[in-house]
Design brief:
Length: about 250
Amino acid sequence: MTVPNPIPPHIPLTIEKQVPNGLNKDGFLKTDSQLHSDLPRNTTVQQDLIRILQAITPSAQPDAFEDNDSVGGAVTLGSLPEVTLRDLTIHDPADVDVFNVTAHETGTLIVSVIGGPVATDLRLQVLDAAGAVVATSSNSQIVIPVVGQQHYFVEISSATGSSFCYDLEIENFETVIPTRIDLDSFSDSGRFNNDDLTNNTSPSFRVFADLSTFAQRGINVLNSTDYMPASLNQSGRDGAAVFVRVLSLIHI
């Protein structure tokens, strides 16, 4: 296999690698050379080639947003439904890229690293306004519930000290709006059990809202044992829920 040599005078660099017979789909009856199409069949060859290519690849340069290596130095991205940044880099083992985003709407925040390193090299985190870690992942995406106009910090770094280039996409989707609120028939004390009249001082309501989108994105859908108004969140679970608060009762 021949690859361009980025070091002047740009003389082609030839890499030769012998592998055992029998790996080729045709049985290597006539040659001991590993065909390019068969490289995925031999992880040793892949690892050797990756190390060689990394050695001859120039190191990444600082991107235009440096120095944003901490929460205090985070680049402010404002409050937008969608933000896309291109040509970002983690240019050395100590480099950390931190961005401050304000949720445009209460709902879902999706943070995606595009074209970055393999999963084992990436450390992706989201922190809240106090600097506490809300979510962390070695994958290229994080999906979390957010509150409108609250600040969140997106932090990208290398888990192994490697350098890489990447693009960053941050999307904010509005939460689901309930389609209907109804007085429970067991709490309805009017002439009919569906006339929305009651003398019950602790009535029950039914709220109709489709939270399946949150579940599909991997966000917990909380129930009454997860979310209690007295303690906000007794179980400590993050997720989506519908909170109903009765402000006043009209006496007739």
